[in-house]
Amino acid sequence: MGRGAYGDQLGETFRLQEPPALVSSSGRPWRLAVTEMRYEAPDFGFTDPVVPEEAFLLSLELHGFRELELWLDGRSVAKQPVYPGGTNFFDLTRNPVAHMVDPFHALLFYVPHEALTELCDEVGVTSSHLRHQPGMQAMDPVIEQLGRALLAPLHAEQQTNALFVDHVLLALRSHLLIHYGDGQRPRIPLHRGLAPWQERRAKEVMRASVAEGITLSALAQACHMSPSAFVHGFKRNTGSTPHQWLMLLRTELAMQLMRESNQPLVAIARQTGFADQSHFTRIFVAKTGMTPGVWRKSIPGRRSAVR
Questions:
Q1: What is the spatial distance between Cα 113 and Cα 55, in angstroms, rounded to a whole number?
Q2: Strands 45-46 and 87-91
Q3: pTM for this prediction
Q4: First to last CA, the chain
Q5: Cβ–Cβ contacts within 10 Å for residue 80, how many?
Q6: In terms of C-beta density within 10 A (0-12 exposed, 13-18 middle, 19 or more buried), how is residue 266 classed?
Q7: Exposure of 233 by Cβ count < 10 A (0-12 exposed, 13-18 middle, 19+ buried)?
Q8: Phi, psi angles (nearest 5°) of residue 4
């Protein structure tokens, strides 16, 4: 298996074909990724070896099972039950191999050392190594909630929102370094807001890409910033993350189309960049408190509309 333990390459380790995966668009040499692994039969046995690399795998367990035996560098180091909602850390420099006897369902996050080192430089941490006890689960509700937020995008029929995926994976990276980093505790970074031209430029780029979407790395590059600094600066200026602001922009554009045309809601959802009508309805209700159909009927002077 080549470098980059995610997607099809990670699937080879678990003998699974084309597992669902999402990969960040960081604009850097490194990538963050999440891969869903699901095996329904008993007696899986040993995973195949992973080619060693400077990276961590985090396994968020969606279902528990009786026992995980972990082998590192050819030696058994732990044999423990696995509980749903827990996370196991695997250092890929140590040739991890797992033995499992029950069906399993997990999200595996791929976090290369390079990605952690870059953030170390931004916040002044001395080490990118993550503290963990091999074979012991961390019951971390933040990792669990971030993982569950990616389940719907992992199974979306259409291309999912890259900005949202980038935001979640970068949030995971920050959480790991702050709470599990092996160096000195990070100082609280004094993030500044965006300069007026940077905020203006970011919003222009998102307006121009409202239907097809845009990656976080592309927005950050347009403002000559790192993705992490851009997210903090944008939120400081606007009170919203870039993804939240884009969803509001799409909602406002959808409102305009509903006022000015009788297009079906499914067509409006497609034109404004939502994954499907269900996604459109969910976001619209969160922003306005009513469904698109109800809102459309409430427009003054409007007799009827195609739903």
A1: 5
A2: unpaired
A3: 0.75
A4: 49
A5: 16
A6: middle
A7: buried
A8: 105, 85
How does pLDDT run across 89-143, given as a tens digit for each residue?
A: 999 999 999 999 899 999 999 999 999 988 886 666 677 788 888 888 999 999 9
Q: How far apart are CA 72 and CA 46, in angstroms?
A: 13
Residue 204, CB half-sphere, CA atoms under 13 Å: how many?
Answer: 8
Q: CB of 136 within 8 A of CB of 89?
A: no
Between CA 180 and CA 125 the distance in angstroms is 12
Cα–Cα distance, 172 to 186 (Å, whole number): 16
Torsion of CA 290, 293, 297, 298, to 10 degrees: 20
Looking at residue 213, its pLDDT comes to: 84
For residue 238, the model assigns a pLDDT of 93
Give the containing element (helix H, strand E) for 148: helix 141-149
Strand, coil or helix: 126: coil
Residue with tokens 């993350």: 241
Percent of the chain residues past pLDDT 70, beyond the cut: 90
Cα 188 from chain centroid (whole Å):
23
